Amino acid sequence: MSQPTSQRTRLSPEQRREQLLDLGVRLLAHRSLDELSIDLLAEEAGISRGLLYHYFGNKHAFHEAVVRRAADDLIEQTSPPADGDPMERMLTSLAAYLDYVVANYEGYLSLVKAAAGGNETLREIYEEARSALNSRIFREDAQGDIVPDTPATRLVVRGWSAMVEELVLSWIADPRGITREQLLEIMAASLPAIVEVAG
Amino acid sequence: MSQPTSQRTRLSPEQRREQLLDLGVRLLAHRSLDELSIDLLAEEAGISRGLLYHYFGNKHAFHEAVVRRAADDLIEQTSPPADGDPMERMLTSLAAYLDYVVANYEGYLSLVKAAAGGNETLREIYEEARSALNSRIFREDAQGDIVPDTPATRLVVRGWSAMVEELVLSWIADPRGITREQLLEIMAASLPAIVEVAG
DNA sequence: TGGCGTTATTGAAAAAGTGTCAATAGAGTG
DNA sequence: CACTCTATTGACACTTTTTCAATAACGCCA
Protein backbone atom coordinates (compact mmCIF):
# COMPACT_ATOMS: atom_id res chain seq x y z
CA MET A 1 0.00 0.00 0.00
CA SER A 2 2.63 2.54 1.05
CA GLN A 3 5.37 1.32 -1.29
CA PRO A 4 5.38 2.17 -4.99
CA THR A 5 3.73 -0.77 -6.72
CA SER A 6 6.02 -0.37 -9.71
CA GLN A 7 8.68 -2.38 -7.89
CA ARG A 8 8.74 -6.07 -7.22
CA THR A 9 9.25 -7.07 -3.65
CA ARG A 10 11.29 -10.18 -3.33
CA LEU A 11 10.70 -12.23 -0.21
CA SER A 12 12.06 -15.52 1.00
CA PRO A 13 9.91 -18.48 -0.01
CA GLU A 14 8.89 -19.01 3.61
CA GLN A 15 7.80 -15.42 4.09
CA ARG A 16 5.92 -15.42 0.82
CA ARG A 17 4.14 -18.67 1.62
CA GLU A 18 3.15 -17.34 5.01
CA GLN A 19 1.85 -14.14 3.54
CA LEU A 20 -0.24 -15.93 0.93
CA LEU A 21 -1.66 -18.49 3.31
CA ASP A 22 -2.53 -15.90 5.93
CA LEU A 23 -4.16 -13.72 3.33
CA GLY A 24 -6.04 -16.74 2.00
CA VAL A 25 -7.46 -17.58 5.43
CA ARG A 26 -8.38 -13.96 5.99
CA LEU A 27 -10.15 -13.61 2.66
CA LEU A 28 -11.93 -16.89 3.10
CA ALA A 29 -13.68 -15.57 6.18
CA HIS A 30 -15.92 -13.37 4.04
CA ARG A 31 -16.48 -15.49 0.98
CA SER A 32 -16.82 -19.13 -0.02
CA LEU A 33 -13.93 -21.21 -1.31
CA ASP A 34 -14.94 -20.97 -4.94
CA GLU A 35 -15.24 -17.23 -4.67
CA LEU A 36 -11.60 -17.20 -3.63
CA SER A 37 -10.11 -16.93 -7.10
CA ILE A 38 -6.45 -16.84 -7.97
CA ASP A 39 -7.09 -13.48 -9.55
CA LEU A 40 -8.51 -12.03 -6.37
CA LEU A 41 -5.79 -13.36 -4.17
CA ALA A 42 -3.00 -12.22 -6.45
CA GLU A 43 -4.45 -8.76 -6.61
CA GLU A 44 -4.94 -8.51 -2.85
CA ALA A 45 -1.43 -9.75 -2.24
CA GLY A 46 -0.01 -7.40 -4.84
CA ILE A 47 1.68 -10.16 -6.79
CA SER A 48 1.26 -11.76 -10.19
CA ARG A 49 -0.94 -14.81 -10.66
CA GLY A 50 2.09 -16.71 -11.85
CA LEU A 51 3.66 -16.50 -8.44
CA LEU A 52 0.73 -18.27 -6.84
CA TYR A 53 1.11 -21.11 -9.27
CA HIS A 54 4.79 -21.19 -8.54
CA TYR A 55 4.10 -21.74 -4.86
CA PHE A 56 1.02 -23.92 -4.92
CA GLY A 57 0.77 -25.52 -8.34
CA ASN A 58 -2.95 -25.05 -8.89
CA LYS A 59 -6.05 -23.60 -7.34
CA HIS A 60 -7.16 -26.75 -5.54
CA ALA A 61 -3.76 -27.22 -3.97
CA PHE A 62 -3.84 -23.64 -2.80
CA HIS A 63 -7.27 -24.06 -1.26
CA GLU A 64 -6.09 -27.21 0.44
CA ALA A 65 -3.07 -25.43 1.86
CA VAL A 66 -5.24 -22.61 3.18
CA VAL A 67 -7.58 -25.02 4.93
CA ARG A 68 -4.68 -27.01 6.34
CA ARG A 69 -3.22 -23.81 7.68
CA ALA A 70 -6.45 -22.94 9.46
CA ALA A 71 -6.66 -26.45 10.91
CA ASP A 72 -3.07 -26.36 12.12
CA ASP A 73 -3.70 -23.05 13.84
CA LEU A 74 -6.64 -24.54 15.64
CA ILE A 75 -4.77 -27.62 16.86
CA GLU A 76 -1.72 -25.68 17.88
CA GLN A 77 -3.43 -22.87 19.72
CA THR A 78 -5.88 -25.03 21.57
CA SER A 79 -4.10 -25.71 24.81
CA PRO A 80 -3.26 -29.31 25.75
CA PRO A 81 -5.40 -31.04 28.36
CA ALA A 82 -4.81 -30.18 31.96
CA ASP A 83 -4.77 -32.94 34.53
CA GLY A 84 -7.52 -33.61 37.01
CA ASP A 85 -10.51 -35.89 36.83
CA PRO A 86 -12.05 -36.65 33.41
CA MET A 87 -14.96 -34.26 33.72
CA GLU A 88 -12.64 -31.46 34.73
CA ARG A 89 -10.35 -32.16 31.79
CA MET A 90 -13.28 -32.03 29.46
CA LEU A 91 -14.32 -28.64 30.76
CA THR A 92 -10.78 -27.36 30.31
CA SER A 93 -10.61 -28.65 26.76
CA LEU A 94 -13.98 -27.22 25.88
CA ALA A 95 -13.00 -23.87 27.34
CA ALA A 96 -9.79 -23.83 25.32
CA TYR A 97 -11.74 -24.66 22.19
CA LEU A 98 -14.34 -22.00 22.87
CA ASP A 99 -11.71 -19.37 23.57
CA TYR A 100 -9.89 -20.22 20.39
CA VAL A 101 -13.02 -19.86 18.31
CA VAL A 102 -13.88 -16.58 20.02
CA ALA A 103 -10.41 -15.24 19.29
CA ASN A 104 -10.34 -16.51 15.71
CA TYR A 105 -13.95 -16.47 14.75
CA GLU A 106 -13.58 -15.66 11.09
CA GLY A 107 -10.66 -17.97 10.47
CA TYR A 108 -12.39 -20.81 12.22
CA LEU A 109 -15.58 -20.16 10.32
CA SER A 110 -13.73 -20.39 7.06
CA LEU A 111 -12.22 -23.68 8.14
CA VAL A 112 -15.60 -25.15 8.96
CA LYS A 113 -17.24 -23.84 5.83
CA ALA A 114 -14.51 -24.97 3.51
CA ALA A 115 -14.30 -28.39 5.09
CA ALA A 116 -18.03 -28.99 5.16
CA GLY A 117 -18.50 -28.02 1.55
CA GLY A 118 -15.30 -29.35 0.13
CA ASN A 119 -13.95 -32.54 -1.31
CA GLU A 120 -12.69 -35.62 0.46
CA THR A 121 -9.25 -34.17 1.11
CA LEU A 122 -10.59 -31.02 2.70
CA ARG A 123 -12.91 -32.97 4.92
CA GLU A 124 -10.09 -35.24 6.01
CA ILE A 125 -8.02 -32.26 7.06
CA TYR A 126 -10.90 -31.03 9.14
CA GLU A 127 -11.65 -34.48 10.59
CA GLU A 128 -8.06 -34.67 11.74
CA ALA A 129 -8.35 -31.40 13.55
CA ARG A 130 -11.58 -32.38 15.22
CA SER A 131 -10.33 -35.75 16.32
CA ALA A 132 -7.25 -34.07 17.73
CA LEU A 133 -9.59 -32.10 19.95
CA ASN A 134 -11.74 -35.06 20.86
CA SER A 135 -8.81 -37.26 21.64
CA ARG A 136 -7.82 -34.83 24.36
CA ILE A 137 -11.11 -35.50 25.97
CA PHE A 138 -11.15 -39.25 25.52
CA ARG A 139 -7.49 -40.11 25.48
CA GLU A 140 -7.23 -40.75 29.15
CA ASP A 141 -10.70 -42.06 29.54
CA ALA A 142 -9.74 -45.65 28.88
CA GLN A 143 -11.73 -46.77 31.88
CA GLY A 144 -14.83 -45.23 30.36
CA ASP A 145 -15.27 -42.78 33.18
CA ILE A 146 -17.21 -40.53 30.86
CA VAL A 147 -18.04 -42.60 27.84
CA PRO A 148 -17.87 -46.37 27.36
CA ASP A 149 -16.52 -47.32 23.94
CA THR A 150 -19.25 -48.98 21.89
CA PRO A 151 -20.50 -48.43 18.34
CA ALA A 152 -23.52 -46.58 19.67
CA THR A 153 -21.48 -44.23 21.85
CA ARG A 154 -18.99 -43.58 19.07
CA LEU A 155 -21.85 -42.47 16.90
CA VAL A 156 -23.30 -40.36 19.64
CA VAL A 157 -19.99 -38.65 20.35
CA ARG A 158 -19.82 -37.66 16.70
CA GLY A 159 -23.24 -36.14 17.05
CA TRP A 160 -22.24 -34.38 20.24
CA SER A 161 -19.20 -32.87 18.51
CA ALA A 162 -21.40 -31.49 15.76
CA MET A 163 -23.66 -30.02 18.41
CA VAL A 164 -20.77 -28.43 20.27
CA GLU A 165 -19.55 -26.83 17.08
CA GLU A 166 -22.98 -25.46 16.27
CA LEU A 167 -23.48 -24.20 19.82
CA VAL A 168 -20.16 -22.42 19.90
CA LEU A 169 -20.65 -20.74 16.55
CA SER A 170 -24.23 -19.76 17.25
CA TRP A 171 -23.39 -18.46 20.70
CA ILE A 172 -20.59 -16.30 19.37
CA ALA A 173 -22.84 -14.95 16.65
CA ASP A 174 -25.35 -13.98 19.33
CA PRO A 175 -24.22 -14.45 22.94
CA ARG A 176 -27.30 -12.87 24.48
CA GLY A 177 -29.35 -15.03 26.76
CA ILE A 178 -26.59 -17.23 28.12
CA THR A 179 -23.18 -16.69 29.69
CA ARG A 180 -19.89 -18.24 28.72
CA GLU A 181 -19.93 -20.40 31.83
CA GLN A 182 -23.45 -21.58 31.20
CA LEU A 183 -22.54 -22.50 27.66
CA LEU A 184 -19.54 -24.52 28.80
CA GLU A 185 -21.60 -26.21 31.46
CA ILE A 186 -24.31 -27.13 28.96
CA MET A 187 -21.84 -28.57 26.50
CA ALA A 188 -20.01 -30.55 29.11
CA ALA A 189 -23.10 -31.86 30.85
CA SER A 190 -24.87 -32.82 27.65
CA LEU A 191 -22.32 -35.43 26.74
CA PRO A 192 -23.06 -37.74 29.67
CA ALA A 193 -26.74 -36.94 29.28
CA ILE A 194 -26.76 -38.07 25.67
CA VAL A 195 -24.61 -41.09 26.35
CA GLU A 196 -27.06 -42.04 29.08
CA VAL A 197 -29.92 -41.82 26.60
CA ALA A 198 -28.00 -43.93 24.11
CA GLY A 199 -27.21 -46.54 26.69
CA MET B 1 -33.06 -39.00 -26.32
CA SER B 2 -35.46 -40.74 -28.69
CA GLN B 3 -36.13 -37.68 -30.85
CA PRO B 4 -33.70 -36.50 -33.49
CA THR B 5 -31.49 -33.94 -31.82
CA SER B 6 -31.31 -31.88 -34.98
CA GLN B 7 -34.59 -30.21 -34.05
CA ARG B 8 -35.19 -27.68 -31.34
CA THR B 9 -37.85 -28.59 -28.87
CA ARG B 10 -39.76 -25.61 -27.70
CA LEU B 11 -41.32 -25.90 -24.27
CA SER B 12 -43.29 -23.51 -22.15
CA PRO B 13 -41.09 -21.52 -19.76
CA GLU B 14 -42.54 -23.40 -16.78
CA GLN B 15 -41.85 -26.80 -18.28
CA ARG B 16 -38.36 -25.80 -19.26
CA ARG B 17 -37.57 -24.41 -15.83
CA GLU B 18 -38.85 -27.57 -14.19
CA GLN B 19 -36.80 -29.74 -16.48
CA LEU B 20 -33.62 -27.82 -15.85
CA LEU B 21 -34.07 -27.64 -12.08
CA ASP B 22 -34.94 -31.32 -11.81
CA LEU B 23 -31.96 -32.24 -13.91
CA GLY B 24 -29.80 -29.94 -11.81
CA VAL B 25 -30.87 -31.62 -8.59
CA ARG B 26 -30.36 -35.04 -10.13
CA LEU B 27 -26.87 -34.20 -11.38
CA LEU B 28 -25.97 -32.62 -8.07
CA ALA B 29 -26.39 -35.98 -6.35
CA HIS B 30 -23.23 -37.31 -7.94
CA ARG B 31 -20.99 -34.27 -8.02
CA SER B 32 -20.34 -31.09 -6.05
CA LEU B 33 -21.85 -27.73 -6.88
CA ASP B 34 -18.77 -26.38 -8.57
CA GLU B 35 -18.49 -29.48 -10.70
CA LEU B 36 -21.97 -28.72 -11.97
CA SER B 37 -20.95 -26.57 -14.93
CA ILE B 38 -23.25 -24.83 -17.35
CA ASP B 39 -21.64 -26.83 -20.11
CA LEU B 40 -22.46 -30.13 -18.46
CA LEU B 41 -26.01 -29.23 -17.69
CA ALA B 42 -26.72 -27.85 -21.14
CA GLU B 43 -25.34 -30.97 -22.73
CA GLU B 44 -27.30 -33.30 -20.45
CA ALA B 45 -30.48 -31.34 -21.04
CA GLY B 46 -29.88 -31.25 -24.78
CA ILE B 47 -30.08 -27.48 -24.98
CA SER B 48 -27.70 -24.64 -25.71
CA ARG B 49 -25.82 -22.89 -22.94
CA GLY B 50 -27.53 -19.68 -23.90
CA LEU B 51 -30.89 -21.01 -22.84
CA LEU B 52 -29.69 -21.59 -19.32
CA TYR B 53 -28.63 -17.99 -19.10
CA HIS B 54 -31.96 -16.94 -20.47
CA TYR B 55 -33.72 -18.72 -17.63
CA PHE B 56 -31.36 -18.18 -14.74
CA GLY B 57 -29.15 -15.22 -15.58
CA ASN B 58 -25.85 -16.64 -14.41
CA LYS B 59 -24.28 -19.72 -12.91
CA HIS B 60 -24.63 -18.64 -9.30
CA ALA B 61 -28.30 -17.92 -9.74
CA PHE B 62 -28.78 -21.32 -11.29
CA HIS B 63 -26.97 -23.05 -8.46
CA GLU B 64 -29.08 -21.10 -6.01
CA ALA B 65 -32.26 -22.17 -7.75
CA VAL B 66 -31.16 -25.80 -7.72
CA VAL B 67 -30.37 -25.73 -4.01
CA ARG B 68 -33.66 -24.00 -3.28
CA ARG B 69 -35.46 -26.67 -5.22
CA ALA B 70 -33.72 -29.42 -3.27
CA ALA B 71 -34.57 -27.71 0.01
CA ASP B 72 -38.20 -27.35 -1.01
CA ASP B 73 -38.32 -31.04 -1.85
CA LEU B 74 -37.06 -31.84 1.60
CA ILE B 75 -39.62 -29.67 3.34
CA GLU B 76 -42.45 -30.89 1.19
CA GLN B 77 -41.68 -34.57 1.32
CA THR B 78 -41.08 -34.61 5.02
CA SER B 79 -44.58 -35.37 6.10
CA PRO B 80 -46.36 -32.86 8.29
CA PRO B 81 -46.73 -33.82 11.93
CA ALA B 82 -49.39 -36.35 12.70
CA ASP B 83 -51.58 -35.84 15.69
CA GLY B 84 -50.98 -37.39 19.05
CA ASP B 85 -49.02 -36.12 22.01
CA PRO B 86 -45.98 -33.87 21.41
CA MET B 87 -43.39 -36.58 21.93
CA GLU B 88 -45.17 -38.86 19.53
CA ARG B 89 -45.38 -36.13 16.93
CA MET B 90 -41.69 -35.48 17.26
CA LEU B 91 -40.89 -39.13 16.70
CA THR B 92 -43.05 -39.08 13.59
CA SER B 93 -41.29 -36.01 12.28
CA LEU B 94 -37.87 -37.47 12.97
CA ALA B 95 -38.83 -40.71 11.26
CA ALA B 96 -40.07 -38.84 8.21
CA TYR B 97 -36.84 -36.87 8.09
CA LEU B 98 -34.71 -39.98 8.49
CA ASP B 99 -36.63 -41.83 5.79
CA TYR B 100 -36.28 -38.91 3.44
CA VAL B 101 -32.55 -38.79 3.91
CA VAL B 102 -32.27 -42.55 3.48
CA ALA B 103 -34.23 -42.38 0.25
CA ASN B 104 -32.28 -39.39 -1.08
CA TYR B 105 -28.94 -39.85 0.56
CA GLU B 106 -26.67 -38.51 -2.14
CA GLY B 107 -28.92 -35.67 -3.07
CA TYR B 108 -29.34 -34.65 0.53
CA LEU B 109 -25.63 -34.88 1.16
CA SER B 110 -25.01 -32.60 -1.79
CA LEU B 111 -27.56 -30.17 -0.45
CA VAL B 112 -25.89 -30.06 2.93
CA LYS B 113 -22.45 -29.69 1.45
CA ALA B 114 -23.49 -27.05 -1.04
CA ALA B 115 -25.19 -25.06 1.67
CA ALA B 116 -22.40 -25.40 4.20
CA GLY B 117 -19.65 -24.51 1.78
CA GLY B 118 -21.51 -21.89 -0.16
CA ASN B 119 -22.12 -18.20 0.14
CA GLU B 120 -24.52 -16.38 2.43
CA THR B 121 -27.50 -16.92 0.18
CA LEU B 122 -27.03 -20.65 -0.05
CA ARG B 123 -26.66 -20.94 3.67
CA GLU B 124 -29.82 -18.94 4.20
CA ILE B 125 -31.77 -21.23 1.95
CA TYR B 126 -30.60 -24.19 3.96
CA GLU B 127 -31.28 -22.43 7.26
CA GLU B 128 -34.83 -21.82 6.15
CA ALA B 129 -35.33 -25.47 5.42
CA ARG B 130 -33.93 -26.53 8.74
CA SER B 131 -35.93 -24.03 10.70
CA ALA B 132 -39.02 -25.18 8.84
CA LEU B 133 -38.32 -28.60 10.29
CA ASN B 134 -37.53 -27.25 13.75
CA SER B 135 -40.45 -24.89 13.89
CA ARG B 136 -42.69 -27.93 13.91
CA ILE B 137 -41.31 -28.62 17.33
CA PHE B 138 -41.90 -25.16 18.71
CA ARG B 139 -45.05 -24.33 16.81
CA GLU B 140 -47.16 -27.15 18.08
CA ASP B 141 -45.50 -27.18 21.40
CA ALA B 142 -46.77 -23.79 22.46
CA GLN B 143 -47.45 -25.04 25.95
CA GLY B 144 -43.82 -26.02 26.26
CA ASP B 145 -44.62 -29.67 26.77
CA ILE B 146 -41.23 -30.60 25.39
CA VAL B 147 -39.28 -27.38 25.15
CA PRO B 148 -40.02 -24.05 26.81
CA ASP B 149 -39.26 -21.12 24.52
CA THR B 150 -36.30 -19.21 25.94
CA PRO B 151 -33.08 -17.89 24.37
CA ALA B 152 -31.16 -20.73 25.99
CA THR B 153 -33.45 -23.44 24.69
CA ARG B 154 -33.55 -21.93 21.21
CA LEU B 155 -29.80 -22.14 21.15
CA VAL B 156 -29.86 -25.67 22.43
CA VAL B 157 -32.41 -26.76 19.85
CA ARG B 158 -30.11 -25.44 17.15
CA GLY B 159 -27.35 -27.56 18.57
CA TRP B 160 -29.63 -30.54 18.79
CA SER B 161 -30.56 -30.10 15.11
CA ALA B 162 -26.93 -30.15 14.12
CA MET B 163 -26.50 -33.32 16.13
CA VAL B 164 -29.50 -34.95 14.51
CA GLU B 165 -28.16 -34.17 11.08
CA GLU B 166 -24.76 -35.58 11.92
CA LEU B 167 -26.28 -38.69 13.49
CA VAL B 168 -28.52 -39.39 10.53
CA LEU B 169 -25.75 -38.95 7.98
CA SER B 170 -23.23 -40.96 9.97
CA TRP B 171 -25.71 -43.72 10.68
CA ILE B 172 -26.62 -44.06 7.00
CA ALA B 173 -22.96 -44.13 6.07
CA ASP B 174 -22.47 -46.99 8.52
CA PRO B 175 -25.62 -48.36 10.14
CA ARG B 176 -23.89 -51.19 11.96
CA GLY B 177 -24.15 -51.21 15.69
CA ILE B 178 -27.52 -49.58 16.06
CA THR B 179 -30.98 -50.10 14.58
CA ARG B 180 -33.21 -47.57 12.96
CA GLU B 181 -35.54 -47.60 15.96
CA GLN B 182 -32.68 -47.14 18.40
CA LEU B 183 -31.42 -44.20 16.38
CA LEU B 184 -34.83 -42.56 16.37
CA GLU B 185 -35.21 -43.19 20.06
CA ILE B 186 -31.81 -41.69 20.82
CA MET B 187 -32.49 -38.58 18.76
CA ALA B 188 -35.93 -38.06 20.25
CA ALA B 189 -34.89 -38.70 23.83
CA SER B 190 -31.80 -36.54 23.64
CA LEU B 191 -33.76 -33.35 23.04
CA PRO B 192 -35.48 -33.34 26.44
CA ALA B 193 -32.25 -34.57 28.01
CA ILE B 194 -30.30 -31.63 26.62
CA VAL B 195 -33.02 -29.15 27.40
CA GLU B 196 -33.00 -30.45 30.95
CA VAL B 197 -29.28 -29.89 31.18
CA ALA B 198 -29.69 -26.38 29.81
CA GLY B 199 -32.46 -25.57 32.24
C1' DT C 1 -54.57 -25.35 -44.39
C1' DG C 2 -51.29 -22.03 -44.56
C1' DG C 3 -49.29 -17.63 -43.53
C1' DC C 4 -47.99 -14.68 -39.33
C1' DG C 5 -46.47 -12.92 -35.02
C1' DT C 6 -44.71 -14.04 -30.69
C1' DT C 7 -40.99 -15.60 -28.21
C1' DA C 8 -38.27 -19.81 -26.93
C1' DT C 9 -34.00 -21.10 -28.55
C1' DT C 10 -29.57 -21.05 -30.76
C1' DG C 11 -24.62 -20.12 -32.10
C1' DA C 12 -20.91 -17.32 -32.48
C1' DA C 13 -18.01 -14.29 -30.30
C1' DA C 14 -16.56 -11.54 -26.13
C1' DA C 15 -15.19 -11.75 -21.30
C1' DA C 16 -13.39 -13.91 -17.30
C1' DG C 17 -10.69 -17.39 -15.05
C1' DT C 18 -7.05 -21.06 -14.98
C1' DG C 19 -2.58 -22.77 -16.00
C1' DT C 20 2.39 -22.50 -18.49
C1' DC C 21 6.87 -20.88 -19.15
C1' DA C 22 10.73 -18.23 -20.95
C1' DA C 23 12.37 -13.76 -19.69
C1' DT C 24 13.31 -10.33 -16.01
C1' DA C 25 15.18 -8.20 -12.00
C1' DG C 26 15.95 -8.02 -6.67
C1' DA C 27 19.16 -9.18 -3.11
C1' DG C 28 22.92 -11.19 -1.05
C1' DT C 29 27.99 -12.47 -1.97
C1' DG C 30 32.67 -12.39 -3.20
C1' DC D 1 30.52 -3.35 -7.95
C1' DA D 2 29.75 -6.89 -10.93
C1' DC D 3 27.79 -11.51 -10.68
C1' DT D 4 24.95 -15.21 -9.66
C1' DC D 5 20.97 -17.26 -7.97
C1' DT D 6 16.25 -17.55 -8.01
C1' DA D 7 11.91 -15.08 -6.79
C1' DT D 8 8.93 -12.86 -9.71
C1' DT D 9 6.73 -11.34 -13.79
C1' DG D 10 3.94 -10.92 -18.13
C1' DA D 11 2.45 -12.58 -22.19
C1' DC D 12 0.16 -16.53 -24.17
C1' DA D 13 -2.80 -20.86 -24.55
C1' DC D 14 -6.73 -23.01 -22.97
C1' DT D 15 -11.19 -23.67 -20.55
C1' DT D 16 -15.47 -21.91 -18.81
C1' DT D 17 -18.77 -18.27 -18.31
C1' DT D 18 -21.66 -14.64 -20.32
C1' DT D 19 -23.77 -11.82 -23.98
C1' DC D 20 -26.86 -10.93 -27.77
C1' DA D 21 -28.44 -10.58 -32.54
C1' DA D 22 -30.31 -14.06 -35.46
C1' DT D 23 -33.30 -18.10 -35.92
C1' DA D 24 -37.19 -21.13 -35.93
C1' DA D 25 -40.96 -23.60 -33.26
C1' DC D 26 -45.62 -23.22 -31.89
C1' DG D 27 -50.29 -21.24 -31.48
C1' DC D 28 -53.52 -18.33 -33.68
C1' DC D 29 -56.44 -16.56 -37.05
C1' DA D 30 -58.10 -16.24 -41.60
From TrEMBL, chains A, B:
InterPro entries: DesT_TetR_C, Homeodomain-like_sf, HTH-type_TetR-like_transc_reg, HTH_TetR, Tet_transcr_reg_TetR-rel_C_sf. Residues 37-56 bind DNA. It comes from the Bacteria. SUPFAM superfamilies: Homeodomain-like, Tetracyclin repressor-like, C-terminal domain. Keywords: DNA-binding, Transcription, Transcription regulation. Residues 14-74 form the HTH tetR-type domain. PANTHER family: HTH-TYPE TRANSCRIPTIONAL REGULATOR RUTR, TRANSCRIPTIONAL REGULATORY PROTEIN (PROBABLY TETR-FAMILY)-RELATED. This is TetR/AcrR family transcriptional regulator. It comes from Nocardioides aquiterrae. The lineage of its organism: Bacteria, Bacillati, Actinomycetota, Actinomycetes, Propionibacteriales.
